[in-house]
Amino acid sequence: SSSSSSSSDVTSNKATDDAITADGTVDETKSSTLSAQCVQPRPIFPWRSSPDPLPRLTHPSKPSVDMHATDDVEIEKNNLMLDEFYLSDYFTKGGPLGPGWISPMEPWFRGALYANSMHLLGVSWPSIIMPWTRKDWEHDMSWNFCHAFSNGVQGMIEDTYILSRSGAYRVETDTAEQGGDGESFDVNLDVTLDPLTGNNGDTAINDSGETNSKTREEISNEDEKYSMLQSHLRQLYQSARNHSHPSKVNILLRTIPQSAQIESMFPIFGLSRSLVEDHPNLRHTYRNLRQGLERKNKEAATAGKARLNPFEVGKFIMESLNEVLSRSASLSGDGNASITVVAQVSINCKEIFCVRDVESGEIIQGYEDGQPRDVTHLVRFEMVLKEKLVGAEDEEAEDGEWEMQIGRWQISDWDDILDGNIFFT
Question: Which residues sit opposite 314 in a β-bridge?
Answer without folding.
Answer: none
